[in-house]
Amino acid sequence: MTLYLYKEHYSAMVEHARYDVPNECCGMLAGKGDRVSAVWRATNAQHSPTRYSLDPQDILRGIREADKAGCELIGFYHSHTHTEAYPSKTDMELAFWPECRYVIVSLIDSGHPTLRAFWIADGKVTEDVVEVSASPDA
Questions:
Q1: Burial 47-69 (b: 16+ CB within 10 A, else e)
Q2: pLDDT tens readout for residues 42-81
Q3: Topology (CATH) of 2-133
């Protein structure tokens, strides 16, 4: 499968990851099906360089905002500050939303961040292709 997002969404996630260094960042993706239409920052309740946890109030806000925009919560994103963009054992254990994608931004090479998307369900990880295109206004 493929996750489609605009350059502005990619840039927003990378900017957030860089801003929250040394800690991991996290946030939500809204859209329809495999197309992202909005990216929202959330608070990493762990305030940690190796773990993240979305504040439950941020998740509730994201679901409400998605409903108001006529879309749905389709994924979550977080950063890895010193490891590759692949789900860690902890990421897999805490993947409670099998219907959502998990996007990881790696800052191993902060000048060239890596962004990858995954489905995580029943301890299995399946990678999606990520297609980034110009903004619809471009």
A1: eebebbbbeeebeeebeeebeee
A2: 999 999 999 999 988 999 999 999 999 999 999 999 999 9
A3: Cytidine Deaminase; domain 2 (3.40.140)
Question: Where in the chain are the domains?
Answer: 2-133
DSSP for 35-96 reads EEEEEEEE-BTT--SS---B-HHHHHHHHHHHHHTT-EEEEEEEEESSS-SS--HHHHHT--
pTM of the model: 0.93
Predicted confidence (pLDDT) per residue in 6-44, tens digit: 999 999 999 999 999 999 999 999 999 999 999 999 999
